[in-house]
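For the sake of transparency, this paper describes our internal protein records without simplification. Such a record has a labelled line for the sequence and another for the backbone structure tokens. Nothing more is needed to write down the fold, since each code stands for a local backbone conformation. For reference, a complete record is included directly beneath this paragraph.
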Amino acid sequence: MSAKTKKRLSAVGKQMILIVMTFLMFFPLYIVFIMGTYYSEDIFKGIPVLPSDYLWENLKMVFSKGFVRAYINSIAVSAGSVVISVVVSTMIGFALAKYSFRGKKLILGFVLAVMMIPGQISLIGYMLEMRMAGLNNTLLPLIFNWAAHPLGAFLMVQFISDGVPDELLESARLDGCSEPGLFFKIVIPCIRPGFVTLATMIFLWSWNNYVLPVIIVNKQELFTIPLMVNNLSNAFRSDYGAIMCALSLSILPMIVIFSLCSKTFIKGISAGAVKG
């Protein structure tokens, strides 16, 4: 067997392994979509593989519970969370990575320390803070929650430290570029993979967030997707067919966003994983 044939067989083998792994990863997602076409009690008769004829009834149930409004709320919250988190985190990362000032190491240490504290510990204090500000039962607390995100700030410190050369910034300063100009014209273009990576992560986390909305939001017209899906169950019955149908519709934006940003996302994760 020639070396060229061995190389070709090796490539085919790798492709087959990737195909099998992809099938195994997406099979549970496929089952969720298929369950969304079944009557709730029929789901427990066995793992459904082929679609059923109950999809339209499940869709009517889902939309009767305010799915469209919850979808709009989730998009508004996730988009607002991405904007405020990415902007604030990038500014913090730029300051800590490229400026020297008193207390810099202390601030960076504080960011790292906050990352180690579970977010659930601060929920009560955050809820009281939002109540004092008169923002309870609004969507704003769900957005402001991501304004001071320690992981986002830490990632941006790494991205900017590695991706923005000091010489480039000094050259721009010598040419008369202002500090805001450095941020918007040089820093952001240089860290585009990190920018997209953080934006994708915040969108997914905000879209799937359940604990904070269930504490802050009490009005049905302000429900996000997780709260609306939970609303499909009551004390007497859980409509699993409708729940699976709602989940199938809710994960479509995440699949589209991750598919569009996957290459940049992986590049950003790889860049932030290695120092220097």
Remarks:
- The chain is about 70% helix and 0% strand.
- The chain has one domain: 65-273.
- Residues 272-276 have pLDDT under 50 and may be disordered.
- The radius of gyration is 23 Å.
